[in-house]
Amino acid sequence: MPMLADPSQRYRPFKPLPFTERTWPNKQHSKAPIWLSTDLRDGNQSLANPMTNSQKLRFFSHLIKLGFKEIEVSYPAASESDFNFVQDLINNGDIPDDVWIQVLTPARSDLIRKTFESLKGAKNAIVHMYNATSCLFREVVFNADQKETIRLATTHTQLVRELAEEYASKYGTNFRFEYSPETFSQTEPAYAVEVCEAVKKAWLSGQGSTWGDGRKEERIIFNLPATVEVSTPNCFADQTYSLTLLEGQVEYFSTHISEREKVIISLHTHNDRGCAVAASELGILAGADRIEGTVLGNGERTGNVDLVTLALNLYSQGIPPHLDFSDMFSVIDTVTECTGLPVHPRHPYAGELVFTAFSGSHQDAIKKGFEALQKRQATGDVHWELPYLPIDPADVGCTYEAVIRVNSQSGKGGIAYIVKQAQSLDLPRRMQIAFYKVVQAISEATGRELSVQDITDALRREYHVGGAQFDGRIVLRSYNLTDSVTDGTATPADSESGPDRQRTLTAKVLVDGVVRHISGTGNGPLSAFLNALKSGLGIDLSVREYSEHAIGGGSDVKAASYVEVIPPNADAKDKTQGGFWGIGVDPDITGSGLRAVLSAANNAIGKSELKGTAFENDEKKLNGMQ
Ligand SMILES: CC(=O)SCCNC(=O)CCNC(=O)[C@H](O)C(C)(C)COP(=O)(O)OP(=O)(O)OC[C@H]1O[C@@H](n2cnc3c(N)ncnc32)[C@H](O)[C@@H]1OP(=O)(O)O
Ligand SMILES: CC(C)C(=O)C(=O)O
Fold it and tell me: What domain of life is recorded for the organism (predicted)?
């Protein structure tokens, strides 16, 4: 059946609360909520193949490692394996003293009794009872009116209360109670408050205990589920904030519910509209103290709210989340291996691609951002501010290698970043443009992403650096430099010569594997070498641009030089006209300059059809190459 031209025939819009006095939109997050992981209950119940005992145990240990202090471990009445898992955790001493396990039960006396049995011997336990309160469920599922629904909740709350007292005195367990008006997001707000008030009264009216006196560990938890997400997140926050509308006045749940200090407001959001994170965040602004969800968002249908995203969203605002995701890879391994579900490559903070830029302008901005960051860090400013990356990938255990990856959408900045990271070569800007064209051609031809190795090899091939297999047609074997006549006109590229020196260079080179001895003079080593190439091999080139930098430090320091050469008929000033680039790396600055010149010369002749061991007769072709 096609989609309806007029969907209002089938779907009714959500009716928002008529608020004018809401203040939560002006608030900001300032601390982490209390977290509860329901991976082993809501997460588990949604799996086609529920977790085995050992998978649950592995998951539980990981949750403890991440820092969870409240973990819903089971729906013990569901099956023997759910029941036994709770008993195993207790009997094997797997639960740290400061951790509360939580178990879920419906408001059914046989199932509540079974649930308490599963908790025998526990130190700290939260009994979580639910019944659905929305009109649809009252009418369709329970065939009960509003009063009967409240009675279902209160009579079973009293039973939980009695059993909690009995099991506390028998086993010394610290019990807390959580009540969920299931389908809260679809329940009439005033009625949801009425149910919660009645449940609170039933829970607090028990005999002979201090429950509910406001001490943190004993407060009743009202868990407000968006069992199905049916509205925009601001409506859910309003529902959280205000549950009663009396005589036309807005009363706010988080400030006006009686004995607010005895209540923890918890949220349990699902992701049907894809807004569970937003709904939880706005719900916290609206007064919630606690969040239930799962690590990476597994759960019924589109999932529960993802606690990784929520926690790291806080972290990115400078708020300690009190959950430790610094080893995200082990989190991903645990979740995927236990649930059998993959993690989407774009999943916030955890996906394989979320810190990666393929597109050129993003890469360029990130590269510049890293350079600026390094400068700021050198002045002691450690604040993270980097284009396109809201947090430092290193904080969640990622390396910077994945930050920039290259395909046909990439630009010079990203490619230069990879060359710098992988080979410590800081290509000058115009050389970046030249090398970008080389990489772009490969990427277009192969139609795939290029690895760091692909780019490294391309650079080596193009500029004849990095080993004998990348040598060009001319190879420098040895050279000797001597002072010669002086004329006082050194070029910048020859700056180390000084203004009053002229140098003579003799070099042994291999040309297509044949030994040749060449010599030339110039104001410095580079011009002497260019002169030698011209007089010895007929290769007439001059330098248009030269730069250098050190690589490393101490006794291992090397020099990297970059040279652009042009043939005699090229305009030295019009830099849009193509030259030929070369790279030289050598422990000695003169050596690196000479190698860069030879690299550029090889690049020049490699792009012509010169052949044989001498180039004298091919000068014309070289001149015509641009
Ligand atoms: C939104 C949530 O995630 S809620 C949690 C859902 N999780 C699960 O259901 C997983 C575990 N559940 C189970 O294993 C089973 O459903 C059991 C063992 C709890 C119950 O099994 P059964 O007794 O066979 O009942 P069934 O699964 O058909 O449940 C429906 C019955 O429970 C009633 N019921 C459903 N929810 C509740 C509740 N919260 N409180 C009281 N009764 C409830 C229904 O009205 C229905 O009653 P009826 O048989 O009189 O019409
Ligand atoms: C039992 C409740 C909290 C639940 O899982 C839901 O409504 O999604």
Answer: Eukaryota
